[in-house]
Amino acid sequence: xxxxxxxxxxxxxxxxxxxxxxxxxxxxxxxxxxxxxxxxxxxxxxxxxxxxxxxxxxxxxxxxxxxxxxxxxxxxxxxxxxxxxxxxxxxxxxxxxxxxxxxxxxxxxxxxxxxxxxxxxxxxxxxxxxxxxxxxxxxxxxxxxxxxxxxxxxxxxxxxxxxxxxxxxxxxxxxxxxxxxxxxxxxxxxxxxxxxxxxxxxxxxxxxxxxxxxxxxxxxxxxxxxxxxxxxxxxxxxxxxxxxxxxxxxxxxxxxxxxxxxxxxxxxxxxxxxxxxxxxxxxxxxxxxxxxxxxxxxxxxxxxxxxxxxxxxxx
Length: 315
Hints:
Strand content: 25-35%
CATH architecture of the largest domain: Alpha-Beta Barrel
CATH superfamily of the largest domain: D-amino Acid Aminotransferase, subunit A, domain 2
Shape: globular
Distance between the termini: 50 Å
């Protein structure tokens, strides 16, 4: 049995870097680059009032933005799903994103792209939004988990908070309302572990609070399908491609229960911020031999290589 707790010093941002650059950071806000202090939205913005908006988390590596087209396509899909018209084109959004990275002198980092419904009033009706949607782009360094967890693996629990049903709100809409995920994340934090598995209303594994989940069993890679409440993650898709093309593995999107996690040979999580991180313990049960598995280690190596060599140049 495993009872090792993740260390508590796992800030979302690299604070040393953030403090050093605090007064130099430039944020893109509705067509202008402004300082962090000047980057403000109205208290009547529907994104603030109701979580009425969408976002994307994107990574830049080695002077390139990783899978930018896929991220922008997903942003536009989220917008269509909630009947939100983004007031600029994908090409203009790409240029704005690159401009923000250059302004912040970043060749590697995390980009948060946000589109809100815009300014309205205290009523729910989005037709009462009197101004066009707001576009915000933030670029900075990010460290989601301590480096040691990528080397030794981390521990997760199963949250009591259930994932919202896909027929109520599709997990592929990356809306600004992440309260469901936040409640589950709080459970992980209270337990002193890095992440929490979220089950759907039927008790099947959906995803973690901010990451997709994979297991390896008898040389086959498994992950939950979107129909179970999982976001079709871009890092998730990249890992599936690497497993099929580089490792020549069989990959299956199938329903999973907690039993499948507990009895897996290997387990790992994927996400834009998390990248690929091993899991060695779930609900106090060791996974495999309690160390990052060989397939997980190979996929981490392949993913790092992919991110360094591909993407849209920052220029």
